[in-house]
Amino acid sequence: MKKTLLTPFFLLLAILANGQDIQNPVWPGNWPDPTIWQATDGCYYCMATNPRRLLQSNDLFHWEMSDISPIDEESWSRIRSISHNFWAPDVTTVGGQRLLYLSLYNSAEDSNIGVFREILPQQFQFAGLITRGLETGIEDTIDPEVVTDPKTGRVWLFFGSVGGIHRVELASDGLSLKPGYEYTHVAGLTVHKNPSRSQVYEGSYLHYRKGWWYLFVSSGFFGDHTYQLQVGRSRKLTGKFVNREGNPMTEGYATPVIHSDEGDQFFGPGHCGEIFTVGGHDYIFYHCHNKALHQRQARPMLMQEIKWDKKGWPYVEGGKPL
Q1: What is the 3-state secondary structure (H, E, C) of the chain?
Q2: What is the pLDDT of residues 161-188, one digit of tens each?
Q3: Which uninterrupted H or E stretch holds 80?
Q4: Which of 14, 112, 166, 207 shows a CA-CA span of 20 to 30 A to 239?
């Protein structure tokens, strides 16, 4: 595994950086649906859809490809017997154990979420399926986001897309559903009610700030400029998420955060992968198309400073990718 150490001067620049100092894309290759974590070695690691390798960084602003294979070969054999597509990973820590949740997709009906344990630093082993669309009837059982409520210790899985975003409680170790579990619809219309997908949400990401849980979602078609990041919030993970005007996300309402227009160089921002605070500034990571690339479906990774207005709603300067 290669590591690049920053000189104190460049490290200082990174710490003091604001959105205008960032050179986007921070990873120019295809890197959709990113998830980022900081490991015990102090480095940051990033995994994306089709997780064959990890990116790593000392400072979040500069990334390089590592030689780490995040999923062991035995696990690849097992999950290939379940699915042909491996999307939208989420790496998080539950009960002191780092876990990976991954979409195992065959079709909208036959879609699943699997869980993996970390067995070596930054390497994960398949531990089983958490939920299956064929059993629940929830179309597009994808895009997992697992979060532990610090007040209650309860562990929640948020997931979904064209069948609506749902929430279900997990066991305290995060490896299975909690006995007596129930699925609750928390955001977005189904694609059958909203074929334009302007109010169909996916790519859930939960962020806690000053007494509010913010549910970031993506809407529109991922391959064009209609795709965008939106948000709603709730005082509780189990509460009703609403947009800025107080309208419920369950009815397809959310507040735009980052969007694009047809013809923009960076278009279709979506599926954010964590918010980090560095030097007193908050930064959000997400994927976005780059018009300059020959591969139209490629989605590099961008980062951008995210700010909060007087009422606590997030925004980026100009409302567009930079």
Answers
A1: CCCCCCCHHHHHHHHHCCHHHCCCCCECCCCCCCEEEECCCCCEEEECCCCCCCEEECCCCCCEECCCCCECHHHHHHHHCCCCEEEEEEEEEECCEEEEEEEEECCCCCEEEEEEEEEECCEEEEEEEEEEHHHHCCCCCCCCEEEECCCCCCEEEEEEECCEEEEEEECCCCCCECCCCCCEEEECCCCCCCCCCCCCEEEEEEEEECCEEEEEEEECCCCCCCCEEEEEEECCCCCCCECCCCCEHHHCCCEEEECCCCCCCEEEEECCCCEEEECCEEEEEEEEEECCCCCCCCCCEEEEEEEECCCCCEECHHHCCC
A2: 999 999 999 999 999 999 999 999 999 9
A3: helix 73-80
A4: 112
pLDDT digits (tens, 9 = 90+) for 23-75: 999 999 999 999 999 999 999 999 999 999 999 999 999 999 999 999 999 99
**Do the Cβ atoms of 268 and 223 come closer than 8 Å?**
yes
CA 11 from centre of chain: 26
pLDDT of residue 293: 84
Report angle CA 239, 247, 158 to the nearest 5 degrees. 40
State the 10-residue block means of pLDDT for the chain, 322 residues long.
36 42 93 97 97 97 97 97 97 97 97 98 98 97 98 97 98 98 98 97 98 98 96 98 98 98 94 94 97 82 97 97 92
What is the three-class DSSP state of 143? Answer: coil
CA 79 – CA 120 distance, rounded (Å): 19
Element (H, E) at 10: helix 8-16
How far apart (Å, rounded) are the C-alpha atoms in residues 44 and 38? 4
Instruction: Report d(CA 286, CA 46) in Å as an integer.
Output: 12
Sign of CA dihedral 98, 229, 108, 189: positive
Cβ neighbours around 139 below 10 Å, total: 20
For residues 167 and 165, what is the distance between their CA atoms, to the nearest angstrom?
A: 7
